[in-house]
Design brief:
Radius of gyration: 16 Å
Distance between the termini: 7 Å
Helix content: 25-40%
Strand content: 5-15%
Oligomer: single chain
CATH architecture: 3-Layer(aba) Sandwich
Shape: globular
């Protein structure tokens, strides 16, 4: 199974980006996680530009379509998801009726050095996915005090956080299988 990870932060050493490596370390056998690295290149969504889709947006859409699932990892800025992440979701949700996000299984992970782990940003991504038709795993995972739970090699060091992330990825794997079964497609071996 191929999972495309979207880190919602543009910062080079962002916890969200480092959590992509942590997720890859904890992914079930047969699950490959790769990161979309062009978030900063995506221009602001403008419906007037939909007929001239920027190359970075085409790349995002094609990478989402090629993936079996999405893993969105977000920080929280001013009690919401970062604007660049919301912008990418807006572009990927278009054109209406042909969206790369429609029907694409997803999981959402948020983190913050603050105790609540960016839960509001997590919920905003999940809310956006209800509108885009993106089935999302039920488990909500917000890792608080992430600065104390991830080491220099991008490995989660706290057992609870490791277990929660492994469970989130297992649920994503199950959701992909359920959707494939419902649509009559051959299930992706895990």
């Amino acid at each position: 199974m191929k999972v495309l990870a979207l880190s919602g932060s543009l910062r080079e050493e962002a916890f969200s980006t480092r959590l992509v490596d942590a997720a890859a370390d904890l992914a079930p056998d047969g699950v490959e996680i790769s990161r979309f690295e062009r978030l900063e290149e995506i221009p602001g969504f403008n419906q007037d530009r939909e007929s001239e889709v920027p190359e970075a947006v085409e790349d995002l859409r094609s990478r989402i379509e090629a993936a079996d699932a999405l893993l969105v990892i977000t920080p929280e800025y001013n009690a919401s998801m970062p604007g660049q992440l919301k912008n990418a979701i807006d572009w990927a949700s278009r054109p209406h009726g042909e969206s790369a996000l429609a029907g694409k299984p997803a999981a959402v992970l948020s983190s913050s050095p603050m105790p609540f782990g960016a839960i509001w940003a997590n919920q905003q991504v999940r809310k956006a996915f209800t509108i885009t038709g993106t089935p999302t795993v039920e488990r909500e995972l917000a890792i608080g005090k992430i600065d104390e739970k991830i080491d220099a090699t991008n490995r989660l060091t706290e057992d609870v956080a490791r277990g929660d992330l492994a469970a989130l990825l297992a649920e994503l794997n199950e959701l992909v299988a359920v959707i494939a079964d419902q649509s009559g497609q051959e299930a992706i071996p895990a």
